[in-house]
């Protein structure tokens, strides 16, 4: 009997536990389940302005606003341009396809951009004695004289010195140029202070030795196309002298006062037209002989009028009056007497 009661109590306790468990499982949650945190809003990708070609651009073309456009890209283009204003007026060195970004390497740089229209950059050999004691610097203006000693086999000329080029701009002198000017004394001193090791100082000294004016072997001058052949002939058969001049001195010779030098090649008959002169490129193509450069062109005398006009314009000398005569007959003799 007691055993039966014990089993009944255990079953009752088990049923109670099961009921409590079922009630707990079926009970609605008192607090809503915590929701997952909302994802942070994704920031829009940063856009970069990139200058590209609006159309195909040929090499050697000066850039204008119509050649360029700005597009936005998710990443910046290394060594590209973001503002078209930095490209206006620049000249392309290579062909650029449409919609292609522009880079500094595709644009022309160097001394060619320092020339004016109609000029050429010409190098001449220099020495200290003929180049103002190596006091010439890039950007200076010089007068170029040439001297002939009269012993040339090309032409028999008197010893002479003449002004060949006036106010020619120096683009480069030795390793220094208008784009890479030589360092000033203060800059050299600062560089020496930055060089701590002896080896670095020696290397710097060796590198800078070639850029010192006293080591210059050539000078590059801006020369008009008409004067290039005169300069090359004068350097080949004579001696050049560079005379340094003040930049404010603007005096120039007047070539119209002197006879023009004849060209080595003569134009065909009827060309150029009467009253028309050869252009600078045509004269350069026609060339120049050294004997004409040395002796100069003969002075042109004023044109003589035609012979008929000379005869009409010449004053006439009045004829002397004819003497009056009379014939006197004496017998068989006839005598003419003037009175």
From TrEMBL:
Residues 177-215, 295-331 are annotated as: Disordered. Pfam families: RcpC (PF16976), SAF (PF08666). NCBIfam families: pilus_cpaB. Residues 48-108 form the SAF domain. InterPro entries: Pilus_assmbl_Flp-typ_CpaB, RcpC_dom, SAF. It comes from Comamonas antarctica. This is Flp pilus assembly protein CpaB. Residues 307-316 have a biased composition (Low complexity).
């Amino acid at each position: 009997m007691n055993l039966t009661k014990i089993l009944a109590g255990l079953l009752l306790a088990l049923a109670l536990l099961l009921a409590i468990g079922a009630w707990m499982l079926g009970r609605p949650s008192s607090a809503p389940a915590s929701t997952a945190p909302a994802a942070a809003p994704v920031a829009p990708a940063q856009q970069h302005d990139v200058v590209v070609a609006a159309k195909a651009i040929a090499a050697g073309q000066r850039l204008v606003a119509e050649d360029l456009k700005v597009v936005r890209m998710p990443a910046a283009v290394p060594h590209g341009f973001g503002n078209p204003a930095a490209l206006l007026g620049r000249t392309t060195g290579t062909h650029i396809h449409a919609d292609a970004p522009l880079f500094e390497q595709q644009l022309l740089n160097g001394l060619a951009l320092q020339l004016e229209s109609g000029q050429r950059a010409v190098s001449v050999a220099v020495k200290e004695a003929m180049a103002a004691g190596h006091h010439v610097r890039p950007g200076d203006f010089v007068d170029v004289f040439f001297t002939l000693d009269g012993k040339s086999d090309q032409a028999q000329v008197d010893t002479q010195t003449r002004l060949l080029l006036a106010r020619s701009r120096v683009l480069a002198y030795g390793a220094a140029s208008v784009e890479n000017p030589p360092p000033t004394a203060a800059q050299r001193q600062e560089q020496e202070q930055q060089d701590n090791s002896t080896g670095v100082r020696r290397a710097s000294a060796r590198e800078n030795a070639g850029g010192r004016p006293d080591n210059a072997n050539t000078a590059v001058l801006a020369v008009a196309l008409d004067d290039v052949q005169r300069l090359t002939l004068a350097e080949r058969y004579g001696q050049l002298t560079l005379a340094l001049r003040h930049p404010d001195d603007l005096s120039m010779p007047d070539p119209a006062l002197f006879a023009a030098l004849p060209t080595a090649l003569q134009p065909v008959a009827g060309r150029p037209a009467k009253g028309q002169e050869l252009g600078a490129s045509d004269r350069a193509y026609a060339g120049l002989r050294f004997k004409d450069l040395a002796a100069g062109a003969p002075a042109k005398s004023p044109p003589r009028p035609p012979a008929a006009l000379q005869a009409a314009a010449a004053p006439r000398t009045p004829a002397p009056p004819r003497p009056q005569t009379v014939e006197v007959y004496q017998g068989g003799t006839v005598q003419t007497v003037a009175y």
